[in-house]
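Late entry, NAP complex.
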Amino acid sequence: MTAKIIDGKAIAKEIRAELAKQVAELTAQGRTPGLTVVLVGDNPASKVYVRSKQRACEEIGINSTVHRLPEETTQAELLALIDQLNADDTVHGILVQLPLPGHLNEEEVINAISPAKDVDGFHPINVGKLQIGTASFVPCTPAGVVELVKRTGVSIAGQHVVVLGRSNIVGKPAAALFLKENATVTICHSRTKNAAEECSRADILIVAVGRPKLVKKDWVKPGAVVIDVGINRVDGEIVGDVDFAEVQEVASAITPVPGGVGPMTIAMLLKATVEAAARG
Ligand code: NAP
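Prediction complete; structure with ligand written out below:
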């Protein structure tokens, strides 16, 4: 069997086109969605991410503002800016690009963002609501993973989903989202006794570990759907957490890296901003 390659780029494009229509409708009602991104310091990767988020907003008509603050910004200055954005009715979504410089307290900053504008879904209120199943905002990458699986035509209810990785931004919220979709969910991590065996029982395998090509052919049940969240730079090349060439031979569908989950993350950020504006 050779797996179908799930084209995240094409699916994200389709979503952006749908969102552009909603943005036009909201704009006609005088409610143009607005996303504000706060970038502190000079982290090169963060600068690239922020630029692509801004470009994606502009392409579909979302108002995007970027506050670029110097590395030496104090906690008090950053919190004051967040207060100001929380109170600004033209700002529907606030995103503080992580990681922050080491002297800043990330947890306090996330907690300061109004849960009603927390498009990243990192505020503890939104994390808790995700567990209850009532979240308005969920972390964009796992939201993108679920959307990708759905738009590939894979039914989730009743399937065994194994999530490899338990980070707060990918693994744990992915598990909660698949549970909400009525999957049977197993979470594996670095202390799991036999991760390969656990993974080989998955109908849908979600991999988010940050270990280049960790998942091999014998970790995957024939016919499984494999979603690779990993982004690793190896010898100047971007590779996932799944050994794509090997696993492609056994899976029924698989995401490439790049071009799989990556483009979905920004599409989900745009979707969250549009939904926030629609809620008013
Ligand atoms: P993270 O915070 O480093 O978490 C990694 C998780 O993997 C941890 O739960 C860790 O277990 C587990 N793990 C590590 N090695 C393992 C092993 N050998 N066997 C089983 N579990 C193992 O990473 P993350 O933020 O979730 O990101 C994961 C990957 O996704 C990275 O490559 C990252 O670049 C990528 N990513 C992509 C996007 C996107 O837009 N496509 C967005 C976010 C992240 P413990 O908890 O026990 O330590």
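The domain at 30-114 is CATH 3.40.50.10860 (Rossmann fold). Will revisit in the morning.
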